Amino acid sequence: MSLKVKDVMSKEIKSLSPDMNAKDALEYLIKSGMSGLPVIDSDDNLVGVFTEKEVLSAIVPSYVKDVGAFVYGEDSKAELKKLVQLEKFKIKDLMRKEFSTIGEESSLTEASKIMLTKSERRIVVVRGRHPVGIITRCDVVKALADKAGIKL
């Protein structure tokens, strides 16, 4: 019997609201020990994903990826200023609107494929547009190890 996403996903979904202040959302991520969370609107629809990567993208100039440290030095005051200004932004302004989802009947192999090919740490499990769970890389690895008889 092959394992399905529903067999290993977490059904408890911590989430953020699209109208939440970005600074408060970052604080929630840090306190909860999560690197990212789904963004769910008042109708329980999945509308985005907000991660540490979106915070970095908001505070570090986009050209850094192309020019690197040669032009952009260490300890930039601009980054710190932008970080403080996060409270002026809503999650809906910074969240990733294109993201992967998976159905609960999908196989762990399919989840693994998405995680590897799209560099996703977590995938929101949906029924239609409504989130019903979250599966992480750790969930997949633990389940596969358990199936192989490796006790972690």
Task: Give keywords.
two-stranded antiparallel ribbon, 152 residues, 18% strand, alpha+beta, CBS-domain
Shape: elongated
Portion in beta strands: 15-25%
Structural class: alpha+beta
Which fold name is given in CATH as the topology? CBS-domain
CATH top level label: Alpha Beta
State the low-pLDDT regions, or none: 63-67
How does this model look, in words?
The protein has helices at 5-8, 22-32, 52-59, 64-67, 77-84, 91-94, 108-117, 137-147; strands at 36-40, 46-51, 101-103, 122-127, 130-136. With 152 residues, the chain is of the alpha+beta class. The protein has one domain: CBS-domain. Strands 3-4-5 form a three-stranded mixed beta sheet. Strand 1 and strand 2 (46-51) form a beta hairpin. It is elongated, with a radius of gyration of 18 Å. 23% of the residues are buried.
Secondary-structure blueprint of this entry?
Blueprint lengths: L4 H4 L13 H11 L3 E5 L5 E6 H8 L4 H4 L9 H8 L6 H4 L6 E3 L4 H10 L4 E6 L2 E7 H11 L5
Parallel strand pairs: 3-4
Antiparallel strand pairs: 1-2, 4-5
Offer a quick outline of the entry:
This protein is of the alpha+beta class and 152 residues long.
